[in-house]
Amino acid sequence: MEFWETTPPRLGCLAYPLAIVGGFVVMLLLAVAVSFSATNSILVGIGGAITASFIAWRNLRSDRVEKERENK
What we know:
The protein is built from four helices and no strands. By secondary structure, the chain is mainly alpha-helical. The radius of gyration is 17 Å and the shape is elongated. The two termini are 16 Å apart.
């Protein structure tokens, strides 16, 4: 158990790609459901991927993770 507590979490290796793909798919499907054209749906999906990657980066910054670990 002590080994796990001293090892820094490696959340970014899957969190960023999954956030990007998830943001793209969700926004793409939303745009298609609203009856946007294919080009506009792709552009909205790319915007969703960029937004999701920014949110993932903001929540998984190393300084934020370290502050949360120190507070525990």
